[in-house]
Amino acid sequence: MSTEQQNASSSSYRCTYDAFLSFRGTDTRKGFTDHLYKTLELAGIHTFRDDDEIERGANIEQELQTAIQESRVSVIVFSKDYASSRWCLNELAIIMERKRTDGHMVVPVFYDVEPSDVRKQTGSFAESFTRHEKRFKDEMDKVEEWRRALRDVADLGGMVLRDRYESQFIQDIVEVVGNKLDYMTNRRLRIDPYVIGRGYYVKSLNMWLEDGSNDVGVAVIHGMGGIGKTTIAKIAYNQNFSKFQASSFLSDIRETSKQANGFVHLQRNLLSDIQKRKMEKIYSLDEGIAKIKRVVCCKRVLLVLDDVENSEQFNAILGMQDWFHPGSKIIITTRHEHLLKAHEVVRFKVEGLHEYESLKLFSWHAFGQPHPQEGYMELSRPILEHCGGVPLALQVLGSSLYGKAIDFWKNALHNLDVISEGKIQKILGISFDSLQDHEKRLFLHIACFFVGKDKDFTTTILDECDFSTEVGLQHLVDRCLVEINVHNKLMMHQLLQDMGRAIIREQSPEDPGRRTRLWHKDAFNVLRKLTGTRTIKGLMLSFPSTESSPVLNEVGFETKAFTEMLNLELLLLDNVKLSGSYEDFPKNLIWLSWRGFSLKSIPANFCLENLVVLDLRKSSLQHVWKGTRFLTRLKILNLSHSHGLRTTSDLSGLPNLEKLILKDCINLIDVDESVGNLGKLIFLNLKDCKSLMKLPKRMHMLRSLKELILTGCSKLVLHDSATVIHLHSTSRDMNKLRLLSIISWTPIRWWWMWAWPGKTLQSTSFPLASLPRFLGSLSLSYCNVSEVPNDLCTLSSLKHLNLIGNPILCLPQKMKGLIMLETLLLDNCTNLEILPELPPRLKKLEAKYCTSLKRLTNLPNLFRSLESLFWGCEHLVEVESLLNIKPLRSADIEMTRYMGLFNLKSIASTDVEMINYLTSTTRKAPVQVLYECGIYSIFFHGSKIPDGFSFTTRYRSVLSVIAPSHPNPKIRGLNSCVLYAREPGLVIDDYLVSAMHLIKVSNQTKGLMWTYSPVTVGFPTEKEDMLWLSHFRFGNNELEYGDEIRVSVEMHDFRIKEFGIQLVYEQERFPSSQNNIVAGDVSMSASEYQMWTGKYFLSNHRHRTHQAQFRMRQENPAHIEFSFGPERLFHKLFKAQGPLEIIGTECPADSSTASGHLFWGNNVKVVGLGFLVSRATHVVGFVAVNKCLILRNRFVALSVSSLVKYHDSRSCKIVGCCIYIPLSCKAF
């Protein structure tokens, strides 16, 4: 791909990292910055963080520069020692240079320094620069560059820690970074991947945009249609919008301005973009101009007006450029060279492509490569000559010839003519002529009526017009005749739309009434002259609203103007008044959109029986119709903004209705009970129906309902036999809110109720009887619900339950009856003390900051992901079947003696500072006994390990022994004890985000290894050391006489002073432990923690269990998906650096699927995924991959070190999978 293509594309989307993190390692690496990095990653913000352990050098410097260039946002953490590092200052200089040249987003973070110190280089920054000036006295220009970069970045403002809590500060930083990324993503415009020959214009435009002038500049990009004006403007906009305080790109002004209230719509879009909030209501052009004037005068704005036809359009949107803030820039694209001739503007005339550029662009679309296939060069030359360097013609014509035989090409050449401004449609017409009849009709329908419409909405209508819409649309997209944008809207280049309408006009040049489709002026004339015929399939006519144009009250037509239009299927009217009888009105209507319908009720003789969509927004209806209308095909009924509507009338005759939209029907007081008969209703919107006081009693019968919106229903009262809940909401008086709406979003059924912050509700029990039993999700967050009724279990389809922030004391014992429940959210339920037995399918449980929670019972067996789920639950001491924490004073005395503890009274009475990784809390409490994974652990203060340990070492962390002979050779357990001290300056809060305690017991002879990390650890004081005493109980034959046993301990940030182990034999009495602590051994628990044959990672914190899935898409055999649970894998992988260690689990599978559980710690960097491949009964290889494809019958895997190929992959089976991590990783 050419450099020009890469630049155009990268300006839109391509970045390796979301954020680049610049910081001084010695200041913040192991504390603040590490926490910030992890929080950014958890928020889904892929962040580059330099590793100080990598040896510095030229390659590293280049790597850092590349990382900055490939990051969307840079986060710079300024600390006291930041300026002492020339590496940090060089990073900063590169970042600020990119900001100046490319509008790069920068987030300065001032950690323990003030912005003024950075700006003025005072305090520690002054000391650092004194040293730099001495060291770099021959490179003072570099030092000055650093000073300038510091001044510039400090002037940006930023985020200052001062006296704030670091945890909240970090959350605020992540939110700011996330908002900037969202802003960039939403602002960037889509660019075609093949942009050829437009780089000169983009460069020239960028130079003008960056000229530093304080004038309000206007540039006009002009040229014939399809020449690439909009593409040039889009690329320049993407590359420059972030350099301005606000920006807006208004597309397709020529066509939009022709629509009803089109100028007002453009004004609303402009205001919304500049103010970065939802569209404002504007009722007239003058009001819009006044609002725009107030907004643009105080911000440097980049504004693009695309496809402006005349000066009136420019003036209607903006008025005068003098209103704009100094330094603002306005770009206009137009086909008219002399537009704004009287104004002082910069002009860019866009010419056609050179021959070699035309050939490259045409080849990309015709052959999928930058040059023609063999045998097609001579056929391509006349096409290039006829297209005259017009990119759109080359693109459309190339796409229409893609994959066609030579004979087809030769026939197409006969229809070509030399292109000119007036003949470009003939070139585009060749692509139209190559379509099937069905596709031609579909293209013309879209060109006339569906540009800008939702794809699914369009499909709903056109499927009923006997189109195979999905298939036909895909063919049109493949030929570049239609585009589906990121919002699922159908888009079409204006030239193609013009071509489609020109084709319609050619059907009957002199008599519009004999054409198949009519719009605007022709439609007006046909209705006025009563010349309509049965040929007409669709008609569109729009007038501005009568409020903005009172003169239109006098414009009207007679219903008899439609009498002869017997085949009319699509009728789109805006603010059109009809008089007369509807007896002979067309009876085959499928889509009727009549905004501003002026009657108070739909007449009984108005035939609607074939309608699929009825859209009567902003109507004068008071009730929809009298009696019952049987409209069996109707799927969508939209009566929004009908302010006179008081009742919906009987809807029982609409059995196939899927969407009912009554938004902003402010006088609606009654939704008819018949709504309960709408068995296929999926979507019901009653937003801002401010007079609605009750819902139909039969609402629970809506079995298909997925989305219900009641926001702003300020008088709504939900009646239940036990409770009445009022929902108070007004858009103008938000501080009166007590409960705000039951609402639904997403494809799952979701009722959502929340309380308005700052208001206290009386405690209540939420009524469930009125909720549909098929409900999939229920959210009652912050509703002050104190008791969840037992009939919760009647919601048998419930998958997601949100009870966050309620004063619940306990959950009903019947919770386990919610057999479909997958997600349970209980954060901030501060009164909750115990969780009952939970449903078997539960996949996600969050109970953060439930400060009274003590016990979890019967946790589902497959649920192991505990870290981050119980943050802040400082009193949690038992998770049934996983762990138990008891005070030492209540522990089994025989067990403690068995572990070598005899003076319990003196030990049990002392307090120990404990860190709990499960809950991310610290607590000072009497000595505790921890039981988990078949292992007992006790932490207490001491100065030496207890007597009786046979093997000891000082200041070392590894012991290797040969199990000695013994009268009874059966070894049933192992005791270990570690004496450790804290490193100077270590703070307990820092340790919460640091590495874990680890002890590894390895039987070298049998190839077995158990790695254990306790959920709680003791934190020594500055004066008192800490002892960690553990007992492992093993099963039969796992440790035997003569086995080589290796035991090691890892404690980051602590100093090991003494370490000892003791083997325990079967003849020694082992207590039953039936009183206080669950009995068991490592063997019983280890099977649940097995990573690979003979390897176990025993931990209930700081790890995740994921289902690894390998799936070949049947519809696209050239594509394989890899995922861990819901997360895509490959964009999270990194290139391997050095030797690798394999971790994983066996997972039998067939040739197309593989699954298994993988375990890894938080500090593990996954660098690869591996699959164990077998053919027949033989394992043929272990393939480490960071890219996999199926190409025909060949399995191709790009190995971390080499390319490995397996032919005839259909005979292979995936029998195992793993992840790859660096050997240097200390998590295992």
Automatic annotation (TrEMBL):
Gene3D superfamilies assigned to the protein according to its UniProt record, in alphabetical order: Helical domain of apoptotic protease-activating factors (1.10.8.430), P-loop containing nucleotide triphosphate hydrolases (3.40.50.300), Ribonuclease Inhibitor (3.80.10.10), Toll/interleukin-1 receptor homology (TIR) domain (3.40.50.10140)
Keywords assigned by UniProt, alphabetized: Leucine-rich repeat, NAD, Repeat
Key word DNA-binding present: no
Span of domain TIR: 15-181
GO biological process, one term: signal transduction
Pfam families referenced in this protein's UniProt entry, alphabetically: NB-ARC, TIR, WHD_ROQ1
GO MF, one example: ADP binding
Top-level taxon of origin: Eukaryota
InterPro entries attached to this UniProt entry: Apaf_helical (IPR042197), Disease_R_plants (IPR044974), LRR_dom_sf (IPR032675), NB-ARC (IPR002182), P-loop_NTPase (IPR027417), TIR_dom (IPR000157), Toll_tir_struct_dom_sf (IPR035897), WHD_ROQ1-like (IPR058192)
NAD among keywords: yes
SUPFAM superfamilies attached to this UniProt entry: L domain-like, P-loop containing nucleoside triphosphate hydrolases, Toll/Interleukin receptor TIR domain
PANTHER family reported in the protein's UniProt record: LEUCINE-RICH REPEAT-CONTAINING PROTEIN (PTHR11017), TMV RESISTANCE PROTEIN N-LIKE (PTHR11017:SF305)
Name this protein carries in UniProt: TMV resistance protein N-like
Organism of provenance: Pyrus ussuriensis x Pyrus communis
